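so the lab meeting is tmrw and i was supposed to have these ready like two days ago... anyway. pasting both below. for each one the top line is the aa sequence and the line under it is the structure tokens. i havent really looked at them closely yet so no promises
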Amino acid sequence: MQGLESLLVVVLVAALTPMIVAAIPGPGLPQVVILILAGVLIGPQGLGLASTTGIKLIADVGLGFLFLLAGYELDPRLLRAHAGRLAIIGWVISAVIAVGTVAILGSFGFLRAFVPIGLAPTTTALGTLLPILQDHHMLSGDFGRYVLAAGAVGELFPIVAISLFLTGRGEFVAIASILAVGVIAILLTLVPRLIGPARVRAIIHQGRRATSQTTLRWSIVLLLLLLVAAQRFGLDVVLGAVLAGMVLRSWTHGTDIDVAPLEGKLDAVGYGFFIPVFFVAAGMALDVKSIAQNPLRLLVFFVLLLVVRGLPSLLVYRRALPLRQRAEMTFITATTMPLLIALAAIGLSTGVMIPANAAALVGAGVLSVLVYPLIAIALARRGRAAPAGPDAVAGLAGAGAGGVVGAARAAGEPSIPHEAGGADDHGVPPAE
């Protein structure tokens, strides 16, 4: 019963969040910010209205949905394109900077968990950023492709590194486990071919609006299947969620049927219920007391995210983007959180990370979600040709996360030509 009461409070918070965002004057905070802060408020270290114990499973599924939708947006062709190559170069530079920075901090006795903390600042929270950037029309055109590529690399590469170096097993076993889960994912992509394209189209067409909801149910089965497979092989479940999204993309994009209804349902189930529960639970689990006792650690990690992951964007995209958009990319790529939660949990469970650093690392991730996207949004708005009219402002304030998949997907296509008089790189039409 206690778990049900906690779930009621969390769901109530999630339902009130859009109203709170609409009531706040100005450009409006991302809903993720309100969800996390509300989690701190209602959690054990706040008012004590709810606990994470009874909602842990739902929060874990929410994390899975977050990365499934991120994986669904990942077009492998994008990584082979120019945007993907630049994203990989940027991540490698971040990894090199992280190694040097962590070595310096370690020499001063600031930390002892070199691998988890070294990986942490190389991550980018693409799944968290998608609804924020979509709500502010920042995923269209060339800029959107660079953002999606950088975010995909900033999630995939650290996830693979976590599976390799933080599973507590030999590297050979870790590599074999990754390959095994990868083979399962590849085999799953072949299912539509085995069934037959005509049969797949029939299933999608017949089940998308019926009470059976066949396509949605099989999407959830796919997610849970790969989550369980990753867990059984001792890998981080985030890897399974990303692979599930990529497999689902291969299923749906291999047909000529309009899959927008399925994508809308995934948004509704994910952003309507599971994902908000995950963000509220993340706020509830934040060790505020430990952070308050040593705020310097949080500030160090917060700056580290920007220096290691963000600043290389100024160099990497110097020939691809103007300075303002490179500055936006700097703050976008430095935004992270879900993987920091996983890294902190792994560090604590293995005993290589002290609790103060684990709390500060997660706190820095939360603070990055609170601050860095808002700076990027402010830069984007300043760079637009003319201020939006009253109707556009009203539409912006009312935009929800439901449309994130469609617009992000459009931005993820390898080539979207610019047309004269069309939208700029943020999807905002120029002034007449």
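ok protien two:
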Amino acid sequence: MSNCSLNEAFRACENLRDLVRDFRFAWEDRSFAIGVSIGISAINGSSGNAVNLLKEADAACYVAKDNGRNRVHVFRPDDEELAMRQGEMQWVEKIQQGLEQNRFCLFGQPIVPLAGHEEGLHFETLVRYRDEKGNIIRPAHFYRLPNVII
């Protein structure tokens, strides 16, 4: 939307969301409710390129979905939920690259009984990811941590 404030854009998107929510889709004698999740990214003098703007709007849309669907969410650079979502999206890309470039490797970790009764050797098999420099990435980086953005 051109020549409108972020508040105006938000209100317009909420109105659109309400119109979609109130619409009923009929098919074969059945009625279905539908919804829409909307992500908003402001275009201004400090905005990045079109690709970055679409990434911001996409991340905001996923936050809207995560918060219960049928919502509107505005991208804000200091938003922790958005930072977490962007970190997750970066990991999706890195995992896809890792699969294509064979960066995953298997490790075996011995399982040691607490009581000391050993009945042969037992191992847990672990999958680890190697980054571009060959470093093993810790499993904690795959969890939803807000500050994990590579």
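from a quick look at the 2nd one: The longest strand covers residues 123-130. Residues 144-150 have pLDDT under 50 and may be disordered. will dig more after coffe
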